[in-house]
Automatic annotation (TrEMBL):
Protein name per its UniProtKB record: Nitrate reductase
Keyword set, alphabetical order: 4Fe-4S, Iron, Iron-sulfur, Metal-binding, Molybdenum, Nitrate assimilation, Oxidoreductase
Domain 4Fe-4S Mo/W bis-MGD-type stretches: 1-53
PROSITE patterns on file: 4FE4S_MOW_BIS_MGD
CDD domains: MopB_CT_Nitrate-R-NapA-like, MopB_Nitrate-R-NapA-like
Top-level taxon: Bacteria
Entries under Pfam families matching the protein: Fer2_BFD, Molybdop_Fe4S4, Molybdopterin, Molydop_binding
Signal sequence residues: none
Coiled coil segments of this chain: none
Cofactor(s) annotated in UniProt: [4Fe-4S] cluster; Mo-bis(molybdopterin guanine dinucleotide)
Family, as annotated: Belongs to the prokaryotic molybdopterin-containing oxidoreductase family. NasA/NapA/NarB subfamily.
Length: 869
C-alpha cells in the first residue's frame, strides 16, 4: 500500500507526513514546511493511533444512544433556548485543532443562522493578541513573511518562544542555516533558560513582561543611530512621531537587562538588515500582549524590514490550524475570511454569500466572558468542540463549575473521558486525526491537507458532519446540505473573493472551482491565491496595507513591565515540555513520549527553595485565591528568583492535583481579551508529604492520594505518588494503587529507614512494583518499568537491579530513537566528543534534535566525570 500524504496534527509548523494504515509515519521529503524532518512528537504518532479510551458512540446522560436521538436532542435544546431567550443565550467554544471545513460550518451556523457571535475558540488563549496587534498595525490579521526568511536571515530574534521544544522543526531549520552560515546570530528573549536559549548565541533574560520596554528601547536606538527607513515611513506608515516619543519615554532599566546586554542586542538588530523577529506565547499570553506585538511590529515598520526576503516579524502559531481558525472567522470578534463584524458592507457580503436569514451585528463573548456568562445563567446551551477548557482556561475550577451550571451542554470529542467531557450532558464522538480529511493552515499561510488513512472507528463522524446534522435539524437543511469537505472548501474559497474585493488580505478564490479530484490531490499552497493572477510570496515589501488609506500604523506603546508583580507572591510562568501535546489525550498514549517528563513539576530558584525549606524532588504546593496544585520541585537556576515555571499539560485525568490553571486568575489583555497565562500570582509552600512512592503496573493506574501523576510505559502504567497519612495496610494500599486485586505479594521492609517495597506476581509474571520511602524515591524508573510484565524475580526487581544479561539504558534522553543516558555516557566515555560523534555512535539527536542541548551538557560534563573517576 502506498502511504498517504498528510499533515501532523500537533504544532503550527504544519509538517507533511507519509502515513500508512499500519501506523508507520515518516516525514514527507516533498512537503515545503519540513522537507522530511520530524520532531519527537510527530515521529511517535504511530503509537497514538490505538482505540484505547476513544469515544465511539454518542452518549446522553452517560448512556450510549444512536446519532439521530443525540442530534435531535442537541438541535431541540439549542432551538428551544433561542426561541425562549434569544440567539445570545447559546454559545460554541471551539478549537484551533478543528479543520478549516469543520470550523467554517460551525462559524456559519452561529453567525449567519443562529444570528449570534457567541462562538469563540481556544485561540483566544493562544493567538488573540497577535491578531489584535496585526489588525492595529496592518489593518488585517496578516502574517507578512515565510519560513524561507529563517533560512536567509542574518539575525533571528526569538521572543517568548521555546522554539526548540514547541516548533522543533523550525528550530532545526534555523540550526541548519546556522551550520551553513555560522556568522548568523540567534538571540532568544526569555526570562528563563530553556533548550532554545541553550541553542542561541545570545540569551537575554529579561524581566517578566519586559518585552515592550525592550522593543521601545530598540526603536529609540534605531532613531538615535539614524537607521529609520525614512522613505518607507513617509510612503507607507502613519504614527511614527508619536510612537517614537512614547518609545523614548521608556526607561531601559524596565527590561531588567544590563546596559551592555541591551547595547549588544540593539547593535545586532540594527546592524543587519536581514532580521526576523519570531514571537510566541511569552508575548501573547500577557496582560500587555497586544502592546508587545505592536512594539515589535513598530521596529520592523520603522526600518522597512518587512515583506522582503530574510526579514520581518513572524508570529509562530501553536495549533495545527490556529491560522485556519483565524481565516474562517472562528473568533467571536471576526467574520469569515478576515471580514469585520462591525463593518456593514462586510456583514452584507457574508450574509448574501450564505443566503442566510440573519447575520450577527456585534462581537460575541470572548472565552473568559463566555464561561462567566455560563456561570451567571445567561448561556442556556453550550457546545464545546475539540478543546478541554476545564484544564486549559485560567481559573479552571470556576470554568468547570460554569460548565456544570449551564442547563444543557454538549461536547464533540475523540476521547471518552476528559476533565471537560465528564461534566457535559451529551458527548458526540468525532473522528480523529488519521480518520478524517480537510485542510489546515500553518504559521506561514500554507494550506495543507490532513488526510484519512484509517477507517472511522465505531460510530464516529467528522466534526463538519456533526455540525451540519444539528444545523439541518434546526431548520437550515439547504444551507448545511454538504456532502463532502471539498464542497465546503469551494464555498469558503468563493467567499474569500468577496473579502478580497472589499479590501481584505485573505484571498483563496483561485481555489473556488477546485474539483473533487483536485481537492483529493490537494498540494500544499500558500495564500494569497487570487483567481486572476499568481499570489505574492510576501506582504508589505512595497506597502499595500489593509487600512483604508493603505498605510500601516505604528502604535505608541507605554511600556508597563511586570505590572502583575506585587507583594509577597511568586510569579507563575507556565508553558510546554518537549514531548507532550497539551492535555496529553493523544501524546500521552505513547510510552516513549511519556518518559522524558512523567510528572508535573515546578522549576524554582535554589535561593527561593532554601527559603521555603524545600529540598530537591520534594513536593511544592502552588496556591492562589482560586485554587491549588501540587507538583514536584525542580530546584534550578534556570528560572529567576521569585518566579516558578510549571508545564500546563497535567489534568485530572492523569494527576491528582497537577492542573495548574486552577491557581491562575483571569487577568486579560484589554485589546484582545487574551488571559495572562504566563503571569499567575501565587503563593508557594513546601508540601509536607509523609511518604513518597513510585508504582509500575500492568493494569491502568488511576490518579489518587494527596499527590499522584500517572504515565504510560511499554508494558502498562507508572505513577509518582505521595501521601500525608499512614495507611492501615501497605499491602492493601499497594494493591489499590497498582489496581491489582489478585497475585501474590512479596515485600522488603526497612523500618529504620522507612522503606517499603512491594512486588506482585501473577504466576511467574511480575505484574506490579510499589516503592515507598520517607524521602523522594531515587529508584531508576526506566529499569523498574522494564521489569513489570516480565518474569523478573521479586528480589531483583525490589532491589532495583537490571534483569540479568540486559544492559541498563538509563534515563531517556532521545525520544526519537529511544536512547538513554547510560548508552550516551558510554559513547562519550569511548571517545565521542561532539554532537556528531554521539549521533554517529548512538543515533541520539539525529532526528528532531530537541535533545541536543541535553546531549551537549553531557558532553561538557565528561571531563569532570572522568577526573572524578
Ligand atoms: N511540545 C509541544 N509543542 C507545542 C505545544 C505543546 O503542547 N507541546 N503546543 C503548541 C501551541 S498550541 C502553542 S501556542 C505553542 C507555544 O509555543 P511557545 O510560546 O514557544 O511555548 P511556551 O512554553 O508556552 O512559552 C514560551 C516561553 O515564553 C516564556 N515567557 C514567559 N513570560 C515571558 C515574558 O514576559 N517575556 C518573554 N519574552 N518570554 C516569556 C516562557 O518562559 C517560555 O519559555 O507551542 C505549540 N507547540
Ligand atoms: N497555564 C497555561 N494554560 C494554557 C496555555 C499555557 O501556555 N499555559 N496555553 C493555552 C494555549 S496556547 C492553548 S492552544 C490551549 C490548548 O488547550 P486545549 O485546547 O484545551 O488542549 P487539548 O488537550 O489539545 O484539547 C483538545 C481536545 O480536542 C480533542 N480532539 C482531538 N482531535 C479532535 C477532533 O478531530 N475533533 C474533536 N471534536 N476533538 C478532537 C482532544 O482529545 C482534546 O481533548 O491551552 C491554553 N492554556
Ligand atoms: S514540528 Fe513536530 S509537532 Fe510540529 S508539525 Fe512538525 S512534526 Fe508535528
Ligand atoms: Mo496554543
Amino acid at each position: 500500500m502506498k502511504p498517504v500524504c498528510t499533515t501532523c496534527p500537533y504544532c503550527g509548523v504544519g509538517c507533511g507526513l507519509l502515513a500508512s494504515g499500519d501506523g508507520s509515519i515518516k516525514g514527507d521529503p516533498d512537503h515545503p514546511s519540513n522537507f522530511g524532518r520530524l520532531c519527537s512528537k510527530g515521529a511517535a504518532l504511530g503509537e497514538t493511533l490505538g482505540l484505547e479510551g476513544r469515544l465511539l458512540s454518542p452518549q446522553v446522560n452517560g448512556a450510549p444512544t444512536d446519532w439521530d436521538s443525540a442530534l435531535d436532542l442537541v438541535a431541540g435544546k439549542f432551538s428551544a433556548a433561542i426561541r425562549d431567550h434569544g440567539p445570545d443565550s447559546v454559545a460554541f467554544y471551539v478549537s484551533g485543532q478543528l479543520l478549516s471545513e469543520d470550523y467554517y460550518v460551525a462559524n456559519k451556523l452561529m453567525k449567519g443562522f443562529i444570528g449570534s457571535a457567541n462562538i469563540d475558540t481556544n485561540s483566544r488563549l493562544c493567538m488573540a493578541s497577535t491578531v489584535a496587534g496585526h489588525k492595529r498595525a496592518f489593518g488585517n490579521d496578516t502574517v507578512p513573511g515565510n519560513y524561507e526568511d529563517l533560512d536567509l536571515a542574518d539575525v533571528i530574534v526569538l521572543v517568548g518562544s521555546n522554539l526548540a521544544w514547541c516548533h522543533p522543526v523550525l528550530f532545526q531549520r534555523i540550526q541548519a542555516a546556522k551550520a551553513e552560515r555560522p556568522e548568523m546570530k540567534i538571540i532568544t528573549i526569555d526570562p528563563r533558560r530553556t533548550a532554545t536559549t541553550d541553542g542561541s548565541d545570545l540569551h537575554l533574560s529579561i524581566s517578566p513582561d519586559g518585552d515592550a520596554a525592550l522593543f521601545n528601547s530598540l526603536l529609540a536606538e534605531i532613531a538615535r543611530q539614524g537607521r529609520v527607513d525614512q522613505n518607507y515611513v513617509d510612503f507607507h506608515v502613519n504614527g511614527f512621531e508619536q510612537t517614537l516619543s512614547a518609545a523614548q519615554a521608556t526607561d531601559p532599566e524596565d527590561t531588567g537587562l544590563s546596559a551592555d546586554e541591551l547595547q549588544l542586542f540593539q547593535d545586532l538588530w540594527i546592524g543587519s538588515e536581514k532580521v526576523v523577529t519570531v514571537f510566541s506565547q511569552g508575548v501573547n499570553q500577557s496582560v500587555g500582549g497586544t502592546d508587545k506585538v505592536n512594539a515589535i511590529l513598530n521596529c520592523h515598520l520603522a526600518t522597512g524590514r518587512i515583506g522582503r526576503t530574510g526579514m520581518g516579524p513572524l508570529s509562530v502559531t501553536g495549533q495545527p490550524n490556529a491560522m485556519g481558525g483565524r481565516e474562517v472567522g472562528g473568533l467571536a470578534n471576526m467574520l469569515a475570511c478576515h471580514l469585520d463584524i462591525e463593518n456593514a458592507d462586510h456583514r452584507k457580503a457574508v450574509q448574501e454569500a450564505w443566503r442566510s436569514p440573519t447575520i450577527c451585528t456585534k462581537p460575541g463573548l470572548k472565552a473568559v466572558d463566555l464561561f462567566r456568562a455560563c456561570a451567571s445563567g445567561q448561556i442556556k446551551a453550550l457546545w464545546i468542540m475539540g478543546t478541554n477548557p476545564a484544564v486549559s482556561m485560567p481559573d479552571a475550577d470556576a470554568v468547570s463549575q460554569a460548565i456544570k451550571t449551564v442547563d444543557f451542554s454538549v461536547i464533540s470529542e475523540v476521547v471518552e473521558h476528559t476533565d471537560t467531557s465528564v461534566m457535559t450532558d451529551v458527548q458526540l464522538p468525532a473522528t480523529a486525526w488519521g480518520e478524517k480529511t480537510g485542510t489546515v493552515t500553518n504559521s506561514e499561510r500554507r494550506i495543507s491537507q490532513q488526510r484519512a488513512f484509517l477507517p472511522a472507528p465505531g460510530e464516529t463522524r467528522p466534526d463538519w458532519q456533526i455540525i451540519c446534522g444539528v444545523a439541518r435539524r434546526m431548520g437550515w437543511a439547504e444551507a448545511f446540505s454538504y456532502h463532502s469537505p471539498a464542497e465546503i472548501f469551494r464555498e469558503y474559497a468563493a467567499l474569500s473573493w468577496q473579502a478580497a474585493a472589499l479590501g481584505c488580505d485573505f484571498d483563496i478564490s483561485g481555489l473556488s472551482g477546485i474539483s473533487d479530484a483536485n481537492y483529493a490531490d490537494f498540494q500544499p499552497v500558500q495564500w494569497p491565491i487570487p483567481s486572476e493572477s499568481p499570489g505574492a510570496d510576501r506582504f508589505f515589501g512595497a506597502g499595500g496595507f489593509f487600512h483604508s488609506d493603505k498605510r500601516a500604523r505604528m502604535v505608541p506603546i507605554k511600556a508597563t513591565p511586570d505590572i502583575l508583580q506585587h507583594g509577597n507572591t511568586f510569579r507563575l510562568n507556565t508553558g510546554r515540555i518537549r514531548d507532550q501535546w497539551h492535555m496529553m489525550t493523544r501524546s500521552g498514549k505513547s510510552p516513549r513520549l511519556s518518559q522524558h517528563q512523567s510528572e508535573p513539576f515546578a522549576e524554582i530558584h535554589p535561593k527561593d527553595a532554601d527559603e521555603l525549606g524545600l529540598r530537591s524532588d520534594e513536593l511544592l504546593e502552588i496556591k492562589s485565591a482560586t485554587g491549588r496544585a501540587v507538583v514536584r520541585a525542580r530546584i534550578t537556576d534556570r528560572t529567576a528568583r521569585n518566579t516558578v515555571f510549571t508545564p500546563m499539560h497535567w489534568s485530572g485525568a492523569n494527576s491528582a492535583f497537577g492542573r495548574v490553571n486552577v491557581a491562575i486568575t483571569s487577568v486579560l489583555d484589554p485589546f484582545s481579551g487574551q488571559p495572562a497565562l504566563k503571569g499567575g500570582q501565587v503563593k508557594l509552600r513546601r508540601f509536607d508529604a509523609l511518604w513518597y512512592g513510585f508504582a509500575v503496573s500492568v493494569a491502568q493506574i488511576l490518579p489518587q492520594s494527596a499527590y499522584s501523576a500517572v504515565a504510560r510505559t511499554e508494558s502498562g502504567w507508572s505513577c509518582e505518588i505521595a501521601g500525608i497519612d499512614v495507611p492501615t495496610s501497605w499491602e492493601q494500599l499497594a494493591r489499590k494503587v497498582l489496581n491489582l486485586k489478585t497475585g501474590s505479594i512479596s515485600q522488603v521492609r526497612d523500618s529504620a529507614k522507612g522503606i517499603i517495597r512491594v512486588a506482585i506476581h501473577e504466576g511467574a509474571r511480575l505484574t506490579g512494583l510499589f516503592f515507598v520511602a520517607r524521602t523522594p524515591i531515587t529508584i531508576d524508573r526506566q529499569r523498574a518499568a522494564s521489569q513489570v510484565g516480565s518474569n523478573a524475580q521479586a528480589l531483583t526487581a525490589l532491589a532495583g537491579l537490571p534483569p540479568i544479561g540486559q544492559p541498563d539504558p538509563g534515563h531517556l534522553v532521545c525520544a526519537c530513537f529511544n536512547v538513554g543516558s547510560n548508552t550516551i555516557r558510554a559513547a562519550i566515555h569511548q571517545g565521542a566528543a561532539t554532537l556528531v560523534d554521539v549521533g554517529n555512535c548512538t543515533a541520539a539527536g539525529t532526528n528532531c534534535g530537541s535533545c541536543k542541548s541535553e546531549l551537549q551538557m553531557m558532553i561538557n560534563a565528561a571531563p569532570v566525570l572522568a577526573a572524578a573517576e
